[in-house]
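Design review, sub-item: ligand-bound model
Attendees: FS, YL, KQ
YL presented the inputs for the flavin mononucleotide complex:
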Amino acid sequence: MPDQPIPSFYNDLAETRAQAWALLVRGVADRRSPFHAPTVASLGLDGRPRARVVILRGCDAASATLRFNTDRRTEKFAELARDPRVALTGYDAGSKIQIRIEGEASLHINDAVADAAWEASRPFSRICYGTAPAPGVMLGDGGDFSLPSEDAAIAAGRANFSTVVIWARTLEWLYLAHAGHRRARFELSSNGQGVWLTP
Ligand SMILES: Cc1cc2nc3c(=O)[nH]c(=O)nc-3n(C[C@H](O)[C@H](O)[C@H](O)COP(=O)(O)O)c2cc1C
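KQ shared the predicted structure:
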């Protein structure tokens, strides 16, 4: 196995934090990045944990926010409306870095944040928001649902569209290395420097 070079962030909390946000920001634009499709967990309406993959649509280190789009008719939307506590995680097998975020979600339907997210979405993505019946409805056959094809019907999907902003409170980092793993946690609200944890 080739030697794994020691990266500059290895023993540096500030660089680790910056690297984590850089990876997440890259995940928005780079569809090949593993952080493009992180897993988001919420508390189910029955109290059980629920996790699913979403596409990362926004990330801003300065405000410690991340964003994804979803249909307001989904379970996750109802779950986050009831309890905004949310977790997001991703793992980059190439760089051997796991990032875990915990925070609170704010749901946007009829505001400027949602309007901007809808405008930024591609026509192909918008089609999903016109699906009928609603996501999660039990079907007689697997194909017993429809998607809009006319422009007006696709535009009407805006009524089902929402964007979810995750206000990150903590960021946890795990870097797997032959020289010894490195694990760190950052309290984002206090803007603290972070602490190392036993991996
Ligand atoms: C690669 C991939 C990307 C996905 N992106 C999204 C997304 O951005 N938003 C979303 O609501 N669901 C997305 N899904 C579907 C969800 O994982 C999930 O199946 C669906 O939203 C229903 O989840 P819920 O019932 O917990 O709300 C994606 C699934 C995959 C496999």
